[in-house]
Design goal:
Chains A, B: This is PLP-dependent aminotransferase family protein. Chains A, B: In the C-terminal section; belongs to the class-I pyridoxal-phosphate-dependent aminotransferase family. Chains A, B: Keywords: Aminotransferase, DNA-binding, Pyridoxal phosphate, Transcription, Transcription regulation, Transferase. Two copies of one chain form a homodimer. Helices cover 39% and strands 12% of the residues of chain A. Chain A is an alpha/beta fold and 498 residues long. Chain A has three domains: 78 residues, Orthogonal Bundle (Arc Repressor Mutant, subunit A); 113 residues, Alpha-Beta Complex (Aspartate Aminotransferase, domain 1); 243 residues, Aspartate Aminotransferase, domain 2. In chain A, helix 2 packs across helix 4 and helix 3 packs across helix 4. Chain A is elongated, with a radius of gyration of 30 Å. Chains A and B meet through helix 2, helix 4, helix 5, helix 7 and helix 8 of A and helix 2, helix 4, helix 5, helix 7 and helix 8 of B.
Chain lengths: 498, 498
Amino acid sequence: MFPYKTSLKLNKNLKEPLYLQLANQFILLIREGNLPPGTKLVGSRTLADLLQVHRKTVVACYEELLLQGWVESIPKKGTFVNKSLPLAQKTTLVGTFKTSKKKSSGFNFYDNNCLSEKKTEKRKGVIYINDGTSDTRLTPTEEIARIYRKIASKKSAYTFLDYSSTHGNVKLREVLAVYLNNSRGLKISKENILITRGSQMGMWLSSQLLLKEGDIIVVGETNYSSADITFQYQKAQIKRVSVDENGLVIDQIEKLCKKQSIKAVYVTSHHHHPTTVTLSAERRIHLLNLAQKHNFAIIEDDYDYDFNYNHAPILPLASHDSSGNVIYIGSVCKTVAPVFRVGYLVASEDFVNEAAKLRGYVDRQGDALLELTFAEFIKSGDLDRHIRKLMKIYLQRRDLFCELLKNKLGDYFQFEVPKGGMAIWVHLNKQYSWSEVAKEASKHQLEVGEWQRYDLVNKKHNAIRIGFASYNDEEIKLLIEKLKQTFKSIKKVPIKHF
Amino acid sequence: MFPYKTSLKLNKNLKEPLYLQLANQFILLIREGNLPPGTKLVGSRTLADLLQVHRKTVVACYEELLLQGWVESIPKKGTFVNKSLPLAQKTTLVGTFKTSKKKSSGFNFYDNNCLSEKKTEKRKGVIYINDGTSDTRLTPTEEIARIYRKIASKKSAYTFLDYSSTHGNVKLREVLAVYLNNSRGLKISKENILITRGSQMGMWLSSQLLLKEGDIIVVGETNYSSADITFQYQKAQIKRVSVDENGLVIDQIEKLCKKQSIKAVYVTSHHHHPTTVTLSAERRIHLLNLAQKHNFAIIEDDYDYDFNYNHAPILPLASHDSSGNVIYIGSVCKTVAPVFRVGYLVASEDFVNEAAKLRGYVDRQGDALLELTFAEFIKSGDLDRHIRKLMKIYLQRRDLFCELLKNKLGDYFQFEVPKGGMAIWVHLNKQYSWSEVAKEASKHQLEVGEWQRYDLVNKKHNAIRIGFASYNDEEIKLLIEKLKQTFKSIKKVPIKHF
């Protein structure tokens, strides 16, 4: 007889009823060839005895197997494994019903070499250099959660629980239109807004709609690596123009336009990523004029509009866009916290509608409860108050960080104090390389991060972005100290000229 | 003199400081050619008088303009609009600084004809026929919001606020691995799970990784239209096989495999969408064997696993997948509420990792607070209790709906009582067409919805899916009544044979 007793294991502590546990184990035995088609199953009384369960349990199990089509019942003969079931594949080992899901797939899929893994592993006691993230300890999470619960507890809340618009919650779109018009000089209405899951989704959707294989997109010679990768995924042709102290060199874009038809320009005009420079007024107008003349899109990623220390925020290109050439992308992720995936894509109505259609097949829709929470958070002025609070703190951190970097590590680093944002663009003395610094720093519990991503075209500029906003004063001092120790242990005499 | 007084409007009630309001309006005037390069600006004292503001406000405004590069200051001569600014494009009308964002874009983008808009508009007093959505009034929203707030209010909450794994929150992945193993007979660990924003994202990511132009994917002759569209977006070749009372006809897939190399099969094995039939045991094994032999992927969309009225849920194909051929997709959207965008993609580790990499560029990451909320909701047994509660209610609704449909509308409709799920596959008497029924129903405040999507290949099967779960008893009676009135006003004598 088949070794039922050893092959069938019942666990009375599980929530799953015994008859179902039994049925599912039978199915596995059948599926994997241990009980081949045509096999007669042991009588219910015998099996109940073997397993020490009530006979009803076995009867219920056999009925379930019958219903599902795994066995057939032949009157006066008994219960048999369904003869019409195909034999299990030979490669399936007999008795392997405890195998776990494989590591590798049984099919081929496309390997997108351009994609890089986003590492977020954090070990205790280690300081991680980031490219300019916010300090999540300052997030008003309790306040946000309070609003969330209030909204979810309203009697009318159920109306927001169902499938809803792929454009995002209409109330947040209305509130955002007013907020962006007031704070950034836009002239939009809710029809120009698609609520996204943060800037990255705005970029993804734009890239999908604008670019196909071979299409040209212009970016800076150094550029935000996630943007590059998003465009590369579409197999777009990336053309790079220089970045100087006034941002992207627009004259080079003008020259490109004379030779080729370009589809889009990606720009972080407020503070260029990674170098932190601001696109000058002159170049802003020049770029807009070019876009209008040559009908290309400007993807304006305004990731750090809220943070300016030396003067008021500079209005985005989108505020001057009377011809519908700018796709303006932003989010609350840098300002409030990355976990709150609420962002926006602002553009002409036709583009917004097409992007909304597409997002219906990407993630179907956003989270209306969270979107309503942010509508209230913005409308009440809480967001603005939060920004003002952060501004003071981050300004102080920038100053401390830059001061220490200059005084303690001036021999190794060269940098300009950034006028805004949350990061410094730091050039390393040419005698060193970030690869050796990163390796050595690691020994001092300091992780430099993916320094490679700042030099995707191998220009050897030897610079990386170092965020200052996420560390408190103590942490800043510790980070600088660890960097100092790192250089000490590299034991080179720094040369004075960079 | 330039009409400063009429062109510059200050509003003391705005939060934006006056000097900034002024500066931003100046920028618009400059940008749009009203104040061309080289124009001398009026003196600060004069402007202060004109606008009746303090002179300091105007001075601060001019300083801001200087800092941003819009104007230049020439000692002893005054303040001038920066001469090096390019002229604004001619097409920009003078004086249009109140224009709103355009309806159409100033650039071209790809029009993906395959995408269809997801309509979610709801008018009061109208009953909408859906394809099987849940009743959001039964959602334990307060309980979920309570857990959410509890998690967000913990001291350690800030650790979840930062950028995190693109695979999803690790705790939810662990809880789900156990939950899916126990409830669905899977044999997985957290490494096999990617947390998505619902089933649609699982489908999107799979489609991106599996299919390129011309690749073959097999689906049922009638199929879930969003799946079709997702594959069409990738320009895949869709091959259709018949669907009978036992689900997809796998013999037809076997024949296809002999002729061509197929990349994937999309299957809703538990209850075929839209017809609600269950894939038989025999065909399950056959399909798995074929996948193993021909190395194709099975995308198993298990959208309604939780709802079975006649017998226990049937284990998914994924529970028998020892060779890594199945990509198993599910979510809590149908079970709890669509607003909670939490789903999962279960597959071999290599595929999960590649999908996680890709999702990093789609929406960067999920919502860790919501994911933790669902980890607790599942682990505490709340989800299971909720499902048991729903099961009783939906079973009763199914029976009422089917009974009324048969007794009151038996002349017009033919259908099988579905064994599970939340919808009935309803064939219309051939004398009628859904287009005329939909048109007429609309007059009775009943919206039939997009009946076209059930017959994408124009097979004229004259059937649509009618959801029963989202209506209470009164609403079911009303819906049936409205359908009856609809047929009455169409005024045809139904023929008896379908």
